[in-house]
Amino acid sequence: MKAENQHFFQKVYQVVRQIPYGRVTSYGAIAKYLGAARSARMVGWAMNNAHSMPDIPAHRVVNRLGLLTGKHHFPGTNLMQQLLENEGIIVKEDQIIDFEKYFWDPAKALDQHLE
Questions:
Q1: Which end of the chain, C or N, has fewer beta carbons within 10 A?
Q2: Which residues partner with 95 through β-bridges?
Q3: In angstroms, rounded to a whole number, what is the distance separating the alpha carbons of residues 93 and 115?
Q4: Distance CA 92, CA 89 (A)
Q5: What is the Cα gyration radius of the chain?
């Protein structure tokens, strides 16, 4: 992996570690917070690499519509959904119900942007 990608991935992981229990955010919200608004797909790649990192709550990152687009990167059939439901988030047909209620915006929640 290129060094600049690795650095970006580490910044993504710093943000994801701060998503509160029972809340979710989107790939795009993380990218925008990091000053790379058009890099949602790169955030997704970072999340794909995070499945084996127990300190990264990757299940809390979904697409901008609340769809569990990364669920196939979790072991088992419905692990991503189960983890979210364990935190009180309702998921039906791979989509978070009341997504706006659970959405956590790093740009509003975190004091300063990561450098």
A1: C
A2: 67, 92
A3: 37
A4: 10
A5: 13
